[in-house]
């Protein structure tokens, strides 16, 4: 809860600085003294993890740019030069490439946390919208970054995605030509993607600043979804959550390190180690894993413009979520029916991701001969599975959440954050920690 | 409830995860256990040396390795690394190996294109001056550059090894066009060339490269029996090294990093518990 | 390890409650250890970020070059590129060597005997970095009042030993690390 600052400058330098530019006060108020609900669980550590990953990507990225050459004739070789000749170049490159994947792992968990606990609901709507903008900018940055090594997948992925704009009526073709800087994806495209890929992370940093500011006005949500009632309910951010976030970060880094050091190419595609060739299309164009669900949605709709609209609509629907969900209860801990639908939503997203990696006409259950033809494809095909999952994705936001909020019977919500802890352990809601001794 | 759901999702993932299939698919690469695999893998320097010889004597006639320099051979972990010469450019054996190979250069006095012996600072020379020349000499097919080939093919080293050793006579009923060679490990769709049972199209495809390895084609200096299998294993190991000379260094660094991170996590865990000891939450 | 929940809940906000065991800000060993490990991790990661700016493998490969002296006729000089800079390899005539030695004691801004600027027993071979020590221009061969080199930018005169004799340059032309690897081949760097 943003309130009166409790910072008291101790040293002479602090007093001097505080009178001129109160940055130390700002830092103290934001990350030291900031009253944070004391019942946050580990799903709340992903914000800190995301901030770390943004830092990692920016630092490794700036260092990579010292060696990368943004020209179609030299890009691929310059990346290999980084891998072979630049001191620790292999480490920096693998950190950056796998760091992007880790960034998306964290952001998806962070988004799902917000969906489950209702962190997008009033008064945090603007916070949520800024988060959606951050997600959009992340996707644009990642897409352009993947083009830079100029491998087969870089090139042909860029061709596919930029061609989508051609679906827009009337202006589509001119916009595509404008984006390409030519008649096809070529050197001008690479250069401008490089420029924007360097720019957008700093836009991200600015958005993150706004995001944290917007968070600090109402303060953090918490697993119970109830507002903070008094200072009984909170602890100062430092050291309680700095250290807890630190622990979560170190576990996350173990996962990150296991990719970087032991399987750095598994999340990528072998075809991207083939230098780009405009005349040869890879057998199977796939985006990076974090785009697969949207790729599945795109291909689920048989019409090109329809597919584009559905794909962007899938992100767009997130922006208006605070107004779609009619429930008066924030946290799904107390919404057992909503929880079920949420679980299916998560499954639908995973299914969409898997579908995005497959060829649309491939059978879902292989070897099963029959299956009838429904419209343009066999019912036993990934495109139909994508359609079912896409339908659920949109239905969840546009039908389930609006209707459920009005019709469901939620569980009784605790009075306050401290209440369940102080009352008898047997009545504590499922999941809330009754006794710290029992924790892991 | 959420936990159960996540477990279910993971199970679903395991079920559905698998490579995308085209109408037919190649044979799965043969499973070989490589010395360089695993978190503690290492390259066998003798094998890398044999592999280099196979590349130099067999493959380099058609395949370039543009991203590899002669000095790379002398780097730590490489085939000809000598601890006496930490600077790879000083390694006399590699200097001699380089000098055996001719590279293009410009005569600084006349400006003409000349050939001179390579030095450690030179890249492996390409057999053809450009792609068009390469295609013209190979019936329209372009022999790919081998610098990162084991990373550029799904299946990696296992695929390269299987491909090299996997050539077989095409089964009866398969029409292989002239200038192409059947290999069950090469990706492709042979439905159009198959006159037999449509449900049993032979796996694999045809490629423009004929079988290259033959018994004793390359004499190994260390006396190792030069079978096709041995040559294939050795050149695959060499190509894997060439694709990522820093692989072993990466794994070794990783070991230290993981230990450090584990210890770090333990410290942070206890620090966290200490801080939160008296707060009911 | 933790207290029970009812009643015994020291207010974590209470300042000055340093007698409480629960004060999380106490400099416990575990916190110091964790903090030190964090600093160590940052340092371990910072080093690669810094080291990557050091010369890379391909730059170091050209850090030393070999040169075949049979290309240089007597009285002539060849200029090669070394570490991004011009390198003068000069084959001096006996008269030039004698003139250089004769001037060993002459007043000059950076006194140095000719002997110190070539390999013992091979006074005809001079290997010098071809960058004027004033502001970095490339001196021209044979010009100037001393028959060595002349820098056209600001008029520095170098003698046949590469020593600055007249003009604004403060030091003699630099002699890089070089040596014979055979009778006719030298390695520089």
Automatic annotation (TrEMBL), chain A:
Keywords: Electron transport, Heme, Iron, Membrane, Metal-binding, Respiratory chain, Transmembrane, Transmembrane helix, Transport. GO terms for molecular function: metal ion binding; oxidoreductase activity; quinol-cytochrome-c reductase activity. InterPro entries: Cyt_b/b6_C, Cyt_b/b6_C_sf, Cyt_b/b6_N, Cytb/b6-like_sf, Cytochrome_b, Cytochrome_b_C_euk/bac, Cytochrome_b_N_euk/bac, Di-haem_cyt_TM. Heme b b562 binds at residues 96, 197. The chain crosses the membrane at residues 42-69, 90-111, 126-148, 160-181, 193-215, 246-262, 305-324, 340-359, 379-401. It holds the Pfam family Cytochrome_B. The keyword Membrane applies. The main subunits of complex b-c1 are: cytochrome b, cytochrome c1 and the Rieske protein. Belongs to the cytochrome b family. This is Cytochrome b.
TrEMBL record, chain B:
Pfam families: Cytochrom_C1 (PF02167). GO terms for cellular component: membrane. GO terms for molecular function: electron transfer activity; heme binding; metal ion binding. Heme c binds at residues 59, 62-63. Binds 1 heme c group covalently per subunit. Coiled coil: none annotated. The keyword Iron applies. It comes from the Bacteria. Residues 46-243 form the Cytochrome c domain. Its main location: membrane. It is found in: Membrane. Its cofactor is heme c. Residues 1-22 form the signal peptide. Keywords: Heme, Iron, Membrane, Metal-binding, Signal, Transmembrane, Transmembrane helix. The chain crosses the membrane at residues 253-272. This is Cytochrome c1. It comes from Phenylobacterium zucineum (strain HLK1). The gene is petC.
